[in-house]
Design a protein that fits this description.
The protein has 386 residues and is α/β, with parallel strands linked by helices. The chain has 2 domains: 10-175, TIM Barrel; 178-386, Orthogonal Bundle (Hypothetical protein af1432), CATH 1.10.3210.10. The chain has helices at 35-42, 46-51, 68-72, 93-102, 155-164, 186-199, 204-212, 215-225, 239-246, 248-258, 272-289, 294-306, 309-313, 317-321, 328-336, 339-350, 355-360, 365-385, and strands at residues 10-16, 21-27, 55-60, 79-84, 106-110, 126-129, 148-150, 168-169. The protein has an 8-stranded mixed barrel with strand order 1-2-3-4-5-6-7-8. Helix 9 (239-246) crosses helix 10 (248-258) and helix 11 packs antiparallel against helix 18.
Length: 386
Amino acid sequence: MLSAPFPLVETSAVANAQNEWVALLLGAADAGLDDPTLQGLFATPALLDAVAPLDCIVRIDSPAVLTPPVLNVLPSSRVLLAVRAAALAQDGAARRLAELQMTGYRVLVDGPLPEGVAAPVALRTVARDARGDLPAGRALPALFGPHLAYHVDDMARYRACENAGFAWFAGAYALEGSLAEGDDGTSRRRMLAMLALLARDADSRELEAQLKADPALSYHLLKLVNSAAFSSGTPITSFAQAISRLGRRQLQRWLQLLLYARPHPDSPPNLMLPAAALRGALLEALCKHEGGDRDDQDLAFMTGVFSLLDRLFRMPMADVVRDLNLPGHVEAALLRRDGTLGQRLRLVEAGRPDAATLAAAGIDAQAWWESLLHAYHWAIQVARNV
């Protein structure tokens, strides 16, 4: 078990330009992580094991926090150091970071350089808060990197960051839904019909008929059950076999997630898929921690996954859930964030709830962290198999 009290940190998934998760960004709101927090996070292998094969990017204010005990728990092969640029005005800071880079650490200079401080030759990879000014044009050195832009809040800002030369991105832009090119609404209607069938625990034959009308969804389901995660060596070629292999509960769970799958086999991944998986798995883990039974956990998972459907379909959530006949407390959570599920959903959306908010929800920091790690681990596996 992790030692308590456990530090609360802000976590953000980092994706590349191909919409693949590549790292987990760790910070403390608008500040860097300190020595005790870093040791608390990395003192056990739980964090790095949970997010493997992703790397971790830690935001720090100064190389002074990188004491020998801290470096002992930060493997250079898995951890990147994003150091606030203001620290380079300190005597010896640039030299210290260059030395760490020589030993194998990847160092990102976080933010614009202080006035009068030249860019160190050895430290050319950067991180920037996308809410501020970005380098003009392609000002970032292409031979270094990948450069990271975080707090990328929408697709317009994403495109500006990409044009500036950034290759890694973190922020709410990943939750912007978009209809498939040329979609006249038919695909959306089929998906909503599938949701209604799932919500009322429809007969397998009804699900099969709906799947046959959506080749893309059928493709992703068969790809999933034939993946390394489930494969037993015998190819699955029919929906009936998929039910037998996965089981009813798992099948419904995967179909809920596959609503977020890429619209065509050759399309880039949809970043909403791992985000929905993360929400579902985190709400489920919190429910399980509180002693909820399996049915309660399934509903918690559904609530997390469905909480992004309004963004996916670009329509009000009330219109999404109108014909789904969801349990009252699930609908209340999705529409108004009411009740226990709604409270948990607000915590998930906050990204980094403070200790007081967690305490009011009856969740301690350690339970939150362990549930979050479980959710990231599961979401990463989902993204790799769909």
